[in-house]
Design brief:
Length: 341
């Protein structure tokens, strides 16, 4: 139970009088202390409602408040200054000074937002302007909850691997469903979308003779809205990483070279994986899972204008493995493909 503490020796300590002198003065002074004084203390210092204050447990990125009441037990108005001593910066005091009338009390609000794994210890002292050598102090303890969302993974600041300790659906053991969020905290997004979540539908400017990243693109038909951040577009020789700010689809989605300007791209691939005529293979990979791949006869050269999957077959990650599904066609980036002849 918190208890009030009282400075019993303010006048005597101030004048450097020892215990014996205090006793003598104490015996001599009762007549000077009004019997009808409103406060229980025989001195004229500050009173606190507690000498210890425990806050929490509080999770990281959360905040709790606590308060302690300080009272002017003296007969005159008094300036009061608070001094917070806590090395981690987890406790904060919005207001640090007051003027209190005789007998007036004020509740001092104190916030606690952990910055490191606890318990976090400190102290809060109050000193009256006219009694600078006799502060009154409340000892502080802040308790920390290392797993704020109770999903079994601790916050990063607690040495854990929960990338979002306020969302129980996000932790390293979670399934990363196709919703634009990285549920399992591995910086790959939506990689558990599954085979066939997206299928290659159109390729442009992959020939080494015509390669220009300003007009190169890979078109996908995305069957469910997803964000392919961190996925890879791999040719036989090169690996490009997909950078995608937001989820896109269902529908036609463009992955583009880093210099693309004239087409509306959902994502950039860096570096752009040039597909050589003699190495005609392209794979879209999420983590270690191949979402779709196209590997056709190496003799089949990719014409400069690009190739596309027949409109009726778009979105099927199995059928586009067949070269007969593809044909040369003028580009339709981000729009429905043409019918192959
Ligand atoms: Ca957690
Ligand atoms: Ca979490
Ligand atoms: Ca992930
Ligand atoms: Ca996800």
């Amino acid at each position: 139970m918190p208890r009030s503490i009282t400075l019993h020796n303010i006048p005597y300590r101030k004048f450097g009088i020892g215990a014996a002198g205090g006793l003598i003065l104490g015996l001599a002074l009762p007549a000077c202390l009004p019997a009808d004084r409103a406060f229980p203390s025989p001195d004229e210092g500050l009173l606190l409602s507690a000498d210890t204050l425990n806050v929490g447990p509080v999770a990281f990125e959360q905040q709790a408040w606590a308060s302690v009441t300080v009272q002017n037990a003296g007969p005159a108005p008094r300036g009061v200054l608070a001094m917070l001593d806590e090395p981690t910066g987890s406790f904060a005091l919005p207001v640090g000074s007051w003027t209190l009338e005789p007998g007036q009390a004020t509740a001092v609000e104190l916030s606690f937002a952990p910055t490191t794994l606890g318990p976090i210890a400190g102290s809060l002292s109050f000193v009256a302007a006219d009694l600078p050598d006799t502060p009154v102090t409340v000892e502080l303890t802040g308790l920390v909850d290392p797993d704020g969302d109770d999903d079994g993974a601790a916050h990063l600041l607690a040495g854990g691997d929960d990338c979002d300790d306020q969302d129980e659906s996000r932790h390293p053991e979670a399934e990363d469903v196709p919703d634009g969020q990285d549920q399992d905290c591995d910086d790959l997004v939506d990689e558990d979308a599954g085979d066939g979540a997206a299928a290659l539908t159109e390729l442009r400017s992959f020939s080494s003779l015509t390669a220009s990243t300003s007009d190169s693109f890979v078109e996908l038909y995305v069957n469910t809205g997803l964000r392919m951040e961190g996925w890879e577009l791999r040719s036989t020789a090169e690996v490009g990483v997909v950078r995608m700010a937001a989820a896109a689809g269902p529908g036609w989605v463009l992955l583009c070279g880093p210099d693309a300007e004239e087409i509306s791209c959902a994502a950039t691939v860096e570096p752009w994986p040039t597909l050589l005529p003699e190495q005609d293979e392209l794979r879209l990979v999420a983590g270690e899972r191949a979402i779709d791949q196209v590997a056709w006869d190496p003799k089949w050269r990719v014409p400069a204008e690009g190739i596309q999957v027949d409109a009726a077959l778009a979105g099927d990650a199995a059928v586009n493995d067949d070269p007969l599904s593809w044909c040369a066609a003028s580009p339709t980036p981000g729009a429905e493909n043409r019918d192959c002849p």
